Amino acid sequence: MTDKREFEIVVDTELPGTPERVWEAVTSGTPAWMFPTDQWPDVKTVQEYPGHLVSRMDGPDGWFNQLEHVLEPLDGGRARLHYVHSGIFADNWDEQYDGASKHTGFYLHTLGQYLQYFDGKPVVFTDIQSPAASQTPDGFERLKKALGVDAAEQGAAVELELDGVGRLSGEVDFSNENFLGLRTSDAMYRFFGRNAFGAPVGMTVHDFSGSGDSAATAEAWGGFLAKVYA
After folding, report:
1. Where is the domain boundary, 117, 142, 172?
2. pTM, two decimal places
3. Is residue 50 reached through a cis peptide bond, with omega within 30 degrees of 0 on the bond before it?
4. How far apart are CA 61 and CA 90, in angstroms?
5. CA distance 195 to 212
6. 50: nearest Cα among 14, 25, 84
7. Phi–psi pair at 66, nearest 5 degrees
8. Quick one: which H or E segment has residue 117?
9. Pairwise pLDDT comparison (108 vs 93), residue with the higher score
10. Three-state DSSP class for residue 198
11. Are residues 138 and 222 in the same domain?
């Protein structure tokens, strides 16, 4: 039986960028902190620059997915964001809601990291998925141990030497049971424990070095992940 119910995820937060900079980041700049959305068949039902943006996709049988951003300027070049993600999940409602709500916090944190450290810099985005063997209950913990950050707390400095990837020197900017963020001077590495939501562990690389190569990045990290889950 299809469990077709509406959902709503609401987050209020402050971001280290003006409403204009946040607007650019959530429209044309999504590869820098989330993933490319330029091919989404969405319609901007509200577009009041730079304070109110609503993007919506509609599908059969009443299905829809909608993102709303309400932005207010704050002192010091900051912005207050009221974010609402609403829509309909057709199947596995509880699991999908749990995954979507937890991803939201991580993505918005990463948006803040981008605005604070890399705003406006060109980015090379790479998405890498782990093998199916990563879907075990301990899949994400295995990755954190392989990275050498299983005991590292958020805010900790890290110096990592990873087989096939090379040296990473930076900071653990986010860490919980489902997600991990590493930030270096020229890149953000996002790790997703999607094994908790019925999918393989995944990761994205947001390279601001000016010399990023997505194919080489995918090969290096893909090889590393293959060894983790061999």
Report:
1. 117
2. 0.95
3. yes
4. 10
5. 28
6. 25
7. -135, 135
8. helix 93-117
9. 108
10. coil
11. yes
